[in-house]
């Protein structure tokens, strides 16, 4: 996995790079602050972010939030030496997948990375399911609207209106929603709306 490191302490950054290599990952960077991390991520998007929270110019949580807003959302593992309960809440709100406190041993680092990658994959799968369900609902609304247009224009019963849409879809090798969209668009043209 390609992991972008953002850590302002050069000794810790070098140590993290070496540990990531030992765990079989490809470390990128390290960035010395959040601004540099954003630039590096834009140029060469990684698979995961490993960001220190407390950095100059832009902290790790703010950098992660900006990257997500720019469409560069990735699993986020944050590391910190600060003991602050509010920081955990901010991390959760930012979408952090794993939170590690310094000093970090190899087992904790490996577990945090694996957990973050797994949670991110689950989140992406859920997003895809939601998108698919929303599209199915929109398609269903369109089909219902098209059935209503056919019923009012021809006086046929609802089951027959649906069969006509199905038959048109089968004959033209189209999806039901595509046939319904055409019916609705043609009605709009006739009505002048």
Any descriptors?
single chain, 193 residues, alpha/beta, Rossmann fold, Arc Repressor Mutant, subunit A, 2 domains, 7 helices, 64% helix, 13% strand, phosphorelay response regulator activity, phosphoprotein, DNA-binding
What can be said about this structure in brief?
This protein is an alpha/beta fold and 193 residues long.
Describe the protein in words:
The chain is an alpha/beta fold and 193 residues long. Helices cover 64% and strands 13% of the residues. A 5-stranded parallel sheet has the order 2-1-3-4-5, with helices on both faces. Pfam families: ANTAR (PF03861), Response_reg (PF00072). The modification 4-aspartylphosphate is found at residue 52.
Shape designation: elongated
Question: Which sequence of strands runs across the widest sheet?
Answer: 2-1-3-4-5
Structural class: alpha/beta
Number of helices: 7
* CATH-defined architecture of the largest domain: 3-Layer(aba) Sandwich
What is the CA-CA span between the terminal residues?
53 Å
């Amino acid at each position: 996995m390609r992991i972008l490191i953002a850590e302002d302490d050069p000794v810790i950054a070098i140590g993290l790079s070496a540990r990531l290599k030992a765990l079989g990952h490809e470390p990128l960077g390290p960035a010395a602050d959040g601004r540099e991390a954003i630039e590096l991520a834009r140029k060469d998007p990684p698979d995961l972010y490993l960001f220190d929270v407390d950095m100059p110019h832009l902290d790790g949580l703010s950098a992660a939030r900006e990257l997500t807003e720019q469409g560069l959302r990735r699993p986020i593992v944050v590391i910190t030496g600060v003991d602050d309960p509010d920081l955990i809440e901010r991390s959760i709100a930012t979408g952090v997948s794993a939170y590690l406190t310094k000093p970090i041993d190899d087992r904790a680092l490996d577990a945090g990375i694996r957990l973050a990658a797994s949670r991110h994959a689950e989140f992406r799968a859920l997003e895809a399911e939601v998108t698919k369900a929303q599209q199915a609902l929109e398609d269903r609304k369109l089909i219902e609207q098209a059935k209503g247009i056919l019923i009012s224009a021809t006086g046929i019963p609802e089951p027959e209106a649906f069969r006509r849409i199905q038959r048109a879809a089968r004959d033209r090798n189209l999806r039901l929603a595509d046939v319904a969209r055409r019916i609705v668009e043609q009605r709009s043209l006739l009505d002048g709306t």
